[in-house]
């Protein structure tokens, strides 16, 4: 990486002119003006991202709630293969696991095509149309009558939902500075927990609808209709970039573009840069973030898919199993928000927070692995602690956004990290489905190993980037000595720009 850093001994005439121009540019607005714009963005764009991501998480997770209302039996996804001494049924959930896994295969297949689409078409339009279409697919799930049908529907659903998270990761870099990005990313990412917290009781209510439909079908019809309507709302309200949005006046637009230049993260362009795309796959940071997201995705995907089934296996009733996922979702959202706030107030702690979250969840996997089966409260506490690791994945998403510059490289990195997310969520249900319920020992063992790997990777990444920042300070000058010698129109990557310093 060092060879690609541009060496600077002394600023030349052209650099001095750029410095003066940058200082003049920032002189036209005050700190109060900037705070007013940030507040406007926070109340305008963040809620749109939050509700969209909540719907995405809710829609993909409806199937888990539907299992408590005969969904598996009606579609032939679960079979009883025997009984324990106390009469507890031993179940084979492989088909259900496959129906969950195929969603993430679709997500994986759709991720890079969606990335290319956002490079050639307005980002906001890609998100809005994808949301509208996946709402229709969710509604069509109610028409499934067999294993083959649910596999096709889940595959298409994954392809369409792949537009959201990678695109939001890039969208955050258009509007907020690097110091602000972790909290804003955390706000929309925490909605996976919000969806988990609010969906069980809503789903239970929908499951009480008595009609000619199966008890699980109204869940898909109602939520699909809401999502389709929201897609229309996004089409008219979600902005694309500071360059093109009509939601800013000229003064606000100039402030937004100046803040974008302060990021040193390159310009916003519709041109695909092959060199930046290839550089993505030579960058250790991309692999670090991808692996952390992949490894946290294993327990996350498993609990998201098997959560109610596992809790039911502890000895709780169907309603209790649904209700107990509410506090799990609340803890997930709260942990993401807490680490987002901590990293905003205490710079340089993102990797440390990843490690702490992983260690807490490691304790949870050990409880579920070794805990006595007759102590259902203790076992639930283990599941409760495992949920904290979702915050580690959220921080890795923010690091992928903050530590990458160059528009094409940012888009490719975001797509790659969420490809890792897909792989993790494919592995999670597979390892849980590989061992019979209600013990699911292979699932908890696999989750333990993955979270231990997260601790190792986060530690090594922190050391590597700290050394890299130090090298850049020695070879060039400390980042604080620069005054934006490069304009955003140069669209330099972080490996090319000597002013860029990595967030820890």
TrEMBL record:
The highest taxon in the source lineage is Eukaryota
One Pfam family per UniProt: MFS_1
Gene Ontology cellular-component annotations:
membrane
Q: Where in the cell is it found?
A: Membrane
- The residue ranges crossing the membrane are 96-114, 126-149, 155-175, 218-238, 291-316, 322-342, 351-372, 378-399, 411-432, 444-465
Q: How does it sit in the membrane?
A: Multi-pass membrane protein
Where the record annotates domain Major facilitator superfamily (MFS) profile, the positions are 45-470
PROSITE patterns, A to Z: MFS (PS50850)
| Annotated InterPro entries | MFS, MFS_dom, MFS_trans_sf
Question: Which terms in the Gene Ontology molecular function aspect does this entry carry?
Answer: transmembrane transporter activity
Record keywords, A-Z? Membrane, Transmembrane, Transmembrane helix, Transport
**Which PANTHER family does UniProt cross-reference here?**
MAJOR FACILITATOR SUPERFAMILY (MFS) PROFILE DOMAIN-CONTAINING PROTEIN, PERMEASE-RELATED
| Name of the protein this chain belongs to | Major facilitator superfamily (MFS) profile domain-containing protein
């Amino acid at each position: 990486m060092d060879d690609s850093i541009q060496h600077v001994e002394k600023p030349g005439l052209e650099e001095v002119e750029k410095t003066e121009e940058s200082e003049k540019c920032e002189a036209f607005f005050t700190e109060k003006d900037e705070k007013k714009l940030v507040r406007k963005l926070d109340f305008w764009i963040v809620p749109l991202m939050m509700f969209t991501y909540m719907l995405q998480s809710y829609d993909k997770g409806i199937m888990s709630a539907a299992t408590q209302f005969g969904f598996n039996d009606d579609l032939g996804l679960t079979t009883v293969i025997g009984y324990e001494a106390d009469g507890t049924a031993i179940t084979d959930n492989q088909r259900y696991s496959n129906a969950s896994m195929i969603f993430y295969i679709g997500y994986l297949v759709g991720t890079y095509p969606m990335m290319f689409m956002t490079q050639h078409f307005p980002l906001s339009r890609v998100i809005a149309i994808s949301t509208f279409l996946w709402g229709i697919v969710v509604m069509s799930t109610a028409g499934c009558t067999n294993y083959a049908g649910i596999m096709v529907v889940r595959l298409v659903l994954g392809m369409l939902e792949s537009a959201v998270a990678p695109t939001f990761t890039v969208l955050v870099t258009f509007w907020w500075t690097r110091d602000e990005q972790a909290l804003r990313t955390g706000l929309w990412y925490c909605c996976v927990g919000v969806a988990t917290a609010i969906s069980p009781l809503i789903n239970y209510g929908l499951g009480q609808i008595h009609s000619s439909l199966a008890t699980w079908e109204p869940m898909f019809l109602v939520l699909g209709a809401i999502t389709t309507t929201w897609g229309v709302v996004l089409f008219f309200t979600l902005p694309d970039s500071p360059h093109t949005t009509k939601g800013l006046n000229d003064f606000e637009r100039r402030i937004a573009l100046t803040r974008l230049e302060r990021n040193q993260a390159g310009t916003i362009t519709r041109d695909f840069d092959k060199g930046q795309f290839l550089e993505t796959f030579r960058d250790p940071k991309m692999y670090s973030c991808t692996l952390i997201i992949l490894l946290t995705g294993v327990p996350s995907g498993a609990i998201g898919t098997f959560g109610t089934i596992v809790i039911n296996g502890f000895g709780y009733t169907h309603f209790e199993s649904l209700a107990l996922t509410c506090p799990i979702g609340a803890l997930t959202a709260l942990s993401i928000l807490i680490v987002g706030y901590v990293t905003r107030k205490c710079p340089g702690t993102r990797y440390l927070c990843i490690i702490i979250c992983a260690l807490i969840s490691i304790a949870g996997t050990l409880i579920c692995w070794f805990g006595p089966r007759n102590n259902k409260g203790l076992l639930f506490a283990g599941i409760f602690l495992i949920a904290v690791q979702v915050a580690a994945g959220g921080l890795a998403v923010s690091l992928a956004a903050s530590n990458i510059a160059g528009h094409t490289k940012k888009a490719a990195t975001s797509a790659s990290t969420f490809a890792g997310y897909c792989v993790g969520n494919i592995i999670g249900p597979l390892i849980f489905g590989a061992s019979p319920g209600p013990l699911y020992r292979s699932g908890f063992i696999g989750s333990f190993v993955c979270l231990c790997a997260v601790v190792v990777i986060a530690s090594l990444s922190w050391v590597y980037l700290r050394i890299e920042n130090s090298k850049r300070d020695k070879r060039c000058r400390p980042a604080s000595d620069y005054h934006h010698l490069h304009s955003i129109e140069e669209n330099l990557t972080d490996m090319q720009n000597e002013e860029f310093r990595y967030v820890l």
